[in-house]
Design brief:
Layout lengths: L2 H47 L9 H37 L20 H25 L3 H36 L7
Length: 186
């Protein structure tokens, strides 16, 4: 096997590994999100049904941290996709034809083309905000110390969520800058 064949084989294997990693990360984020929404929803519903509103104090923090983690996983998925796209480009250039197209057609899965994605993410952020307001109302009726602690913890969780959203929104460009001139001659 000559050097060119070895490079093609290695790059195809890399593309497959990146695809697997991206799919596994996306599946993990889906499972985490489903479990988290279920647990926080059941906890909130049980607390309200049993007239134990203090359960609402933990919901915003838990939900915000859950979303922060999910958005971090989405960032990983995006980065894997960018790297795979670069591998596809290099293979196509070297072979003078498109041999892999998963990331070539990936933009149809993104929010620019598929408005349900940013809409759903927006709904999750609204739920986090709404649960924060509900938790504040509960804290207000308990004590000033609880209000203070609630605000501190909820603001920290909100900051983590905001940072994760910001990072997810810019990871494509950051990843593209990192792999832009790959492969480098050695």
């Amino acid at each position: 096997m000559d050097r060119q064949e070895q490079l093609v084989l290695a790059r195809r294997e890399e593309a497959q590994a990146l695809l697997r990693a991206g799919l596994e990360t996306k599946e993990r984020s889906d499972r985490v999100l489903a479990l988290g929404v279920t647990v926080t929803g059941v906890a909130a519903a049980a607390g309200i049904a049993n007239e134990f509103e203090p359960v609402m104090l933990g919901v915003p923090t838990a939900f915000s941290l859950l979303l922060a983690y999910v958005f971090q996983l989405y960032s990983d998925t995006i980065a894997f996709g960018v790297a795979r796209k670069r591998v596809e480009e290099v293979l196509a250039f070297g072979l003078h034809e498109d041999v892999l197209i998963a990331e070539t057609v990936a933009p149809v899965r993104h929010g620019r083309v598929n408005p349900s994605i940013p809409l759903t993410q927006g709904v999750y952020l609204l739920l986090a905000g709404g649960s924060t307001v509900a938790g504040f109302a509960v804290a207000w009726n308990v004590s000033h110390l609880v209000v203070t602690l609630y605000l501190i913890v909820t603001l920290l969780a909100g900051a983590a969520l905001a940072a994760s959203v910001r990072d997810m929104r810019r990871v494509w460009q950051l990843a593209r800058n990192e792999v832009g001139d790959w492969p480098r001659d050695r």
